[in-house]
UniProtKB/TrEMBL annotation:
InterPro entries: Nucleotide-diphossugar_trans
Protein name (record): Nucleotide-diphospho-sugar transferase domain-containing protein
Region described as Disordered: 190-212
Species for this entry: Allorhodopirellula solitaria
Compositional bias segments (type: Basic residues): 199-212
Superkingdom of this protein's organism: Bacteria
Amino acid sequence: MNPIHEGSFDQPDEGILYVAIGWRMRRPLERSIASVRKFLNLPITVITDLDGIHHVDVVKKVKWNRTPGYAVKPAFIPQLPYARTMVLDTDTIILRSDAAAPMRLITDQYGYHAAAVQSLNGRTDEVRVLSCTPSCNSGVLFLRRSPRVRKAMKLWRQYYPGKGSEEVFLTRALLTAAVPTFWLPREWNDRGRGNQSQRKVRISHPKPIKSR
């Protein structure tokens, strides 16, 4: 497969987005892409500063002069290359063919504009919207390219201070922009806590890359 490098092109209605900045992302990215190709029939776009990315549909090369880390997410995820985008961290692994089923939630049929899994980090008070709003985990996101989501993406960039975890600011942005969000079960973003039957896990997301 020869990926398209930037330029103008027609994009399908739905697909997968990776943001891979820094050489440490290459190996986990290749593994994650292989798992997508095994189980899902969706186009893949990669925003990256790496050369030689294979088995994807679109590669968008960017320059990043800072240390790679969480800041790349609010910088690049808001580009949302598809009308319905499944955003995956490079260290995620697809384990079942129904891993992309939440794409159907972010349609007019069900009315949601975003879907995510609540984080296990206990940052309830840090979201600073309501005390009952824990942050989502940004390693697996389903986002609809709608006016509300675009507003949330703009707010995410505004709220993020430029360093540290970006998840509480993403959650704050989704709530502030009144984005209808469906909270998925942990089987769609399994952090290996041992609470889920491995037969039911759709997306595995082991501990973070050390550089973050």
